[in-house]
Amino acid sequence: MRRRSILGTSLAVVVAMGVAACGGGDSGEGSDTLRITLVNHVWTENLKKALPEFEKQSGLKVEVTQLGEDQLSDQYNVKLNAGSSDIDVMMYRPLQEGKLFAKNKYLADLTDRTKSDSAFEFGDFQPGPVQATTYEDKVVGVPIITEQEVLYYRKDLLEKSGFTAPPKTLDELKAQAAKVEADNPGVAGFVARTGKAAAVTQFSSFLYSFGGDFVDAGGKASVDTEQAKQAYAYYGGMLKDHGPENISTDMSWSEAMAIFTQGKAAFYTEANSLYKNATDPAKSKVADTVGFAAFPAGPAGSKPYNIPSWALGVNDASENKDNAWKFIQWAAGKEQSLVQQKAGVPGARASVWANPEATSTYPKDLAEATTVSTANGVGHDRPLVVKVAEAREIVGQPIVDAITGKDSAASADAANEAFQKFLDDEAK
Amino acid sequence: MSTVTTPDTRSPEARPALPDGSAWSRWANAHRKWLFAAPAMAFVAVLIVFPVAWTGYLSLTDAEGSVRAESEFIGFQNYLDVLADTDRFWPAVWRTVAFTGVVLLFEIVLGMAIALLLWRPFRGERWVRVAILLPLVATPVAVGMMWRLIFDPNIGMANQVLSWVGIGPQPWLSGQHSALPTTMFIDVWQWTPMVVLILLAGLTSLSDEPQEAALIDGASTWQRFRHVTLPLLMPTVVVAILLRGIDALKTFDILYATKGRGGGSFHEVETLNVYAYGLSFDYNDYGVSSTVLIIFFLIIIGVMWALTYRKKGLQR
């Protein structure tokens, strides 16, 4: 029985904060033990394989804490709020938590360190990702993973329905999805994320390709424009009309990916950095027949997002910053970046992208699709605000309304009003 | 021990000297009642009073982003805002009450039925008891994950079973209106055994004589249950309601494991606990989150008080 935990969920945080605030400071400057917190990701798996090499060469002992995205976020909320020093290196999402963390001064200023190290060559990182890890002209993180949205599809099903090439436009995508679905009972034409907040990032490419954005050039909310309304209606309509039966409105990438890899859907729009889940025979029933294509063009062309999804930062309260930087130098260095990219995780280093070896292991069509997306991509996949989680829920509401067959245009109007209020509050 | 239970009425000078007559021992002896209670009091202060008090304080501020950031004292503004919020707060209150009411009703009725069945010895009794208590020992998050798989609309077993009897697939957890009832079902599945356990303990302690007397008087099975067993068992039933009721009000794990943050895209299963969690972990609105928690805390204290008051009435 869990008595006494009446206020459990959030009060535990408060207690942890209090306790952690008293307990900090047990590792002196330059402790030999480095504590790093990483997310569950192919990047992390690759890194762990190479860790012994780093430990040997640096003489440090690395303690890895590995968590899912949400749990990682919660962990940071608790520990960083308390000013805890027991995280040295943190893997974080520049577009999700970057602004919040930088504003709260959780992230150490790395500007001098990035400048002083010529072998690391910070100038080698692509400017877009670097901009996302820079706050008020200070470098607070080093981008390690970039991603672009691409179209995953089933070669065999397309062939069976008489299509010789994947769709080039969103109209073609709709037509092909409908035909494949009709030809294959039990297989959905299209699947994508459906959760209100989770879908926002994957919806963003549709929004841009229809010619819209979350915020207009003047900084005003713009999810009620004609373009945005069309994008909502298209994304939601595809899932409603050609999505799996009894579609859930809670799906994030893992659920949507599962439907695709179980062979239950023909098309799937998702980040390319997750492609190993679809091509690994141990995880996917369709590993042999999955194909990749550039994001289909809408009225405004093919405009997928092209974003730095994860970066490494140093906890400002860490008492082991020198060693933390050593770790970042190694993990985000040229050598490891090449290793990572070859193992399927696209990075942010221009020199690695220029090296043909880096993408030699990729499926050929994925490498091509990625090149296209990198060229015409948009640098954000969610509203660029401080309280991203809240903003995502606001602009995501019309998506789930469209999926469930409600009036998505009216919902977009309501969302725009709420989003403008949110932006006004944040500007205060 | 005797020095504790029988107060020493002699004057301090008349008492025999302590083995170590230092000032500390004398002080400790004089304050022993506080000394012995101190660890427990410190525990309560650090782990219960301090967090509740600090949450109370936060609820009066506009703390957001980081609790270490500067925040302003804004009085009861958060309370006014929250109580006027018909978008998230009141629906969450309603869901919390509905969830608790429904699961409590089913758990008590089913728990009573099962406890009565298990009351009298029968062959294989031990195995049946173990089987019935199994859900209780599983962790709620694992239970949530398990049912999420079973209720998956496309590959789940629940729709498979329905198709055998000719019923079409149901949305279960993914339906906007079916999600809350489905989570209620999961809660009933998991926690009915606890009610069985409590009621069975109560039944076992009842004496056989009133039953035998009623039997001789020619009472039917229903009459014996309604007029003999139930009244005698009532104090135990109230205990079961009290324990389960408070637990059900603050259910979090099953809801979070099945529907994730915010209780689903339409906040279908967002109860007060889930709402407060989202406010602090997703929105970093510590002030508002604390306000919701304090209001929730008061609701629970109110329910607890009402139930214990009723219990006393019954035992009289």
UniProtKB/TrEMBL annotation, chain A:
<feature type="signal peptide">
    <location>
        <begin position="1"/>
        <end position="21"/>
    </location>
</feature>
<protein>
    <submittedName>
        <fullName>Carbohydrate ABC transporter substrate-binding protein, CUT1 family</fullName>
    </submittedName>
</protein>
<keyword id="KW-0732">Signal</keyword>
<dbReference type="InterPro" id="IPR050490">
    <property type="entry name" value="Bact_solute-bd_prot1"/>
</dbReference>
<dbReference type="InterPro" id="IPR006059">
    <property type="entry name" value="SBP"/>
</dbReference>
<dbReference type="Pfam" id="PF01547">
    <property type="entry name" value="SBP_bac_1"/>
</dbReference>
TrEMBL record, chain B:
<feature type="transmembrane region" description="Helical">
    <location>
        <begin position="130"/>
        <end position="150"/>
    </location>
</feature>
<comment type="similarity">
    <text>Belongs to the binding-protein-dependent transport system permease family.</text>
</comment>
<dbReference type="Pfam" id="PF00528">
    <property type="entry name" value="BPD_transp_1"/>
</dbReference>
<dbReference type="InterPro" id="IPR052730">
    <property type="entry name" value="Sugar_ABC_transporter"/>
</dbReference>
<keyword id="KW-0812">Transmembrane</keyword>
<feature type="transmembrane region" description="Helical">
    <location>
        <begin position="286"/>
        <end position="307"/>
    </location>
</feature>
<dbReference type="InterPro" id="IPR035906">
    <property type="entry name" value="MetI-like_sf"/>
</dbReference>
<dbReference type="GO" id="GO:0005886">
    <property type="term" value="C:plasma membrane"/>
</dbReference>
<feature type="transmembrane region" description="Helical">
    <location>
        <begin position="97"/>
        <end position="118"/>
    </location>
</feature>
<feature type="domain" description="ABC transmembrane type-1">
    <location>
        <begin position="93"/>
        <end position="307"/>
    </location>
</feature>
<dbReference type="GO" id="GO:0055085">
    <property type="term" value="P:transmembrane transport"/>
</dbReference>
<keyword id="KW-0813">Transport</keyword>
<protein>
    <submittedName>
        <fullName>Carbohydrate ABC transporter membrane protein 1, CUT1 family</fullName>
    </submittedName>
</protein>
<dbReference type="InterPro" id="IPR000515">
    <property type="entry name" value="MetI-like"/>
</dbReference>
<keyword id="KW-1133">Transmembrane helix</keyword>
<feature type="transmembrane region" description="Helical">
    <location>
        <begin position="228"/>
        <end position="246"/>
    </location>
</feature>
<keyword id="KW-0472">Membrane</keyword>
<feature type="transmembrane region" description="Helical">
    <location>
        <begin position="34"/>
        <end position="54"/>
    </location>
</feature>
<feature type="transmembrane region" description="Helical">
    <location>
        <begin position="188"/>
        <end position="207"/>
    </location>
</feature>
